[in-house]
Design goal:
Elements: H1 12-20, H2 28-36, H3 41-48, H4 59-84, H5 91-154, H6 159-175, H7 180-192, H8 209-241, E1 255-256, E2 261-262, E3 265-266, E4 271-272, E5 276-278, E6 283-284, E7 288-290, E8 295-302, E9 307-308, E10 312-314, E11 319-326, E12 331-338, E13 343-350, E14 355-362, E15 367-374, E16 379-386, E17 391-398, E18 403-410, E19 415-422, E20 431-434, H9 441-447, H10 453-456
Parallel strand pairs: 1-5, 2-6, 3-7, 4-8, 5-8, 6-9, 7-10, 8-11, 9-12, 10-12, 11-13, 12-14, 13-15, 14-16, 15-17, 16-18, 17-19, 18-20
Helix pairs in contact: 4-5, 5-6, 6-7, 6-8
Length: 470
């Protein structure tokens, strides 16, 4: 092993070269500032030629320097007055001269007192900064240790340890402002991991005792894993239901559930004020994905390219005041999505290029007072879109370029006060359009329907067809 050379005489040439090149001289202004800060940097520079070497003034040195300057000032002023004025100077003038000298000395003392106070303040502030940095380093160390411990618990084999890891990671996200998004990313990543839900089926017929025990163990493990995932969703829901709180809020963070598996998931009552909550490309086969009572004032709720093969997605009684709920290119192959009794006062809800090959989309008793709903280029085949008993007092509903091969658009009982509804050309498609007959030509003009459609269609929806239970 090669031993590094010791620092000695061999290093002197480079040092000399550095001195021959000349020390880097700082401006005089820098030295004046250093004197005011209580440093002897300029004096050290004059002695050594190295401005990096400095010596702070001690308190006793300040006092000695003050007395020296004061004595010198008294001596100089007295000599000046003795030489300028005659010996027969009046006593009153001598008293005034002495008083002036004392004022000058007091002024010099005040300057030194200010310098000492300024230096003391600088030292105190520097000490506070060092303490704050030390506390920050210690706090960061504690947070990192908590994060490591929670991550290890989340990856444990036992479900009980994983549950403890969920609570530990959520608690850390509450406390750690700088690392909150990282903690949330870990919890969301856990939900994105592959998951086989419990089947609920009994062991296969003819299975021996070992196979039945293995089946029960597998079902139990799946149920425990489902409970861990439900706990993560519950932790997120609980924090998004609360009002935003500075330094602790989760509302401005992003939640990435892309391609995650959801069966039953309860996000009811949450408040979306910013960030992105992404459900892109999820597969929702059965159960209820519940956003009942959601309040959205900003941010995005993205279901782009999601697949809903069955089950229900519920936005009943939700309030949209801003933001954007997107179902662009989503596939509805069954099931129901409901905005029943919701309030659309702002923001956007879009189904751009979505495919609805079954099931229903319901806006039963929804109040449209603002915002936009778009079904642009959406394909409807055997689907129903309900606007029955909805109230239009503003906003915009757009079916531009939508394609209907079969299905129904139900406007029975709708009340139209204002706003705008644009539709595709329904002519030639076997669409069963049910407008509100009390509005007559007014709803026809609003919907831009072909002539004669209102007279040729029937009104009303039976209780059996109503989407109230959606």
């Amino acid at each position: 092993m090669t031993t590094p050379p010791e620092v000695g005489a061999d290093d002197r040439p480079s040092t000399k070269r550095r001195h021959r090149a000349g020390p880097k001289r700082a401006p005089i202004r820098t030295h004046l500032v250093a004197v005011l800060q209580g440093e002897l940097g300029p004096l050290r520079f004059l002695i050594t030629g190295d401005e990096q070497r400095w010596l702070p003034l001690r308190l006793w040195l300040h006092i000695a320097l003050f007395f020296g300057v004061a004595v010198a000032s008294v001596f100089v002023l007295w000599v000046i007055f003795q030489g300028v004025f005659a010996a027969g100077l009046k006593d009153e003038l001598k008293v005034e001269v002495i008083r002036l000298i004392l004022y000058i000395i007091a002024g010099i003392g005040g300057v030194f007192a200010l310098v000492i106070a300024y230096r003391r303040q600088g030292l105190n502030e520097a000490a506070e900064v060092r303490v704050e940095r030390a506390e920050a380093r210690e706090e960061s160390k504690v947070f990192n240790e908590r994060f490591k411990s929670a991550s290890e618990q989340l990856s444990a084999e036992q479900a009980a340890n994983r549950l403890a890891g969920v609570y530990a990671m959520a608690g850390l996200a509450d406390d750690w402002d700088q690392g909150r998004q990282t903690c949330i990313n870990v919890l969301c990543a856990y939900l994105r991991m592959p998951f086989d839900p419990p089947t609920g089926e009994p062991p296969p017929e003819g299975a021996d005792s070992a196979e039945r025990a293995e089946h029960r163990a597998e079902e139990r493990a799946r149920s425990q894993e489902a409970q861990v995932r439900e706990t993560i969703i519950s932790a997120i829901r609980a924090r998004l239901r609360e009002a935003p709180m500075a330094g602790r809020t989760w509302h401005s963070c992003d939640f990435d559930f892309t391609k995650a598996y959801f069966d039953d998931a309860d996000f009811s009552g949450i408040l979306v004020t910013g960030g992105v909550m992404s459900f892109r490309k999820i597969v929702h086969r059965t159960g209820l994905l519940d956003f009942n009572g959601l309040v959205m004032t900003g941010g995005q709720l993205a279901f782009d390219e999601a697949v809903f093969s069955d089950g229900r997605v519920r936005f009943s009684e939700a309030k949209f005041y801003g933001g954007h709920a997107k179902f662009n290119a989503a596939v509805f192959a069954g099931g129901r999505i409901s905005f029943n009794e919701a309030e659309l006062a702002g923001g956007k809800v879009s189904f751009y290029a979505a495919e609805c090959t079954g099931g229903q989309i319901s806006f039963y008793k929804t109040q449209f007072s603002g915002g936009v709903i778009r079904f642009i280029s959406t394909l409807f085949s055997g689907s129903q879109v309900y606007f029955n008993e909805a109230k239009f007092s503003g906003g915009h509903v757009d079916f531009d370029s939508a394609k209907f091969s079969s299905g129904k658009v139900d406007l029975s009982g709708a009340r139209y006060v204002g706003g705008e509804i644009e539709t595709a050309d329904f002519q030639g498609y076997p669409v069963r359009l049910i407008p509100n007959p009390r509005l007559g030509d007014r709803i026809a003009e609003c919907l831009k329907l072909p002539p004669g459609w209102v007279e040729g269609l029937f009104g009303g929806t039976s209780e059996k067809e109503s989407p109230r239970s959606a």
